[in-house]
Structures are given as structure tokens and as C-alpha cells.
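Running low. Any example?
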Amino acid sequence: MISKKEVQHIAKLARLGITKKEEKKFQKELSSILDYFQSLQEVDVSGIEPTFHSTEDILIKKTEIMREDKENPQSEESADKLIELAPDKKGNHIKVRAVFD
């Protein structure tokens, strides 16, 4: 089991102020997590080929799994209704906060 000193060190690294009660709780939880990783280390994966990316088929086999990008026009009435509901607007455009400075 992970020691209380190690829990305190981890909490300090994460800049967490924890109580004695939380210290005991985290001691049990972190030990449980580390035990789980230990059990994963024991799994035989010698016959399994590693995967380097979740979209490996797209990158290597050039398999197309994306849907076609199609226009989905809305009626002018529904667009006007959406703009009307916006909290801040200018003409036919919805104003939003700047994403980039």
C-alpha cells in the first residue's frame, strides 16, 4: 500500500491541500489504482501487434470512413427564429466573444 508520506508528496506536487481524512481516502484509492496497473503488467500481450493511432486504417490502408460533407440548408424562417433567440446579435449575425486575442 502507498504510504501517507507518498500521498502527501503527490498532493503537494498536484498543489492540493488535503485533510487527514482525505489523506487516508487517497491512500486507499491510489493503492487500488497502482494495484490495477500491476495486474495489467502481468497480461501477456506478446502476440498482439501494437496500434500507434486510433485512425490507423485511414492513415495506412487509406480506408475512407468519413461521411460525405453535404450542405443541409435551413429554411429562412428557422434561421430568423434562431437569430431572434440569440442574446447578442448584429443584423443577421449572432455576436459571440472572441476566441483568439
In short: Helices lie at 4-13, 20-41, 56-60, 76-85. The radius of gyration is 26 Å. DSSP finds four helices and two strands in the chain.
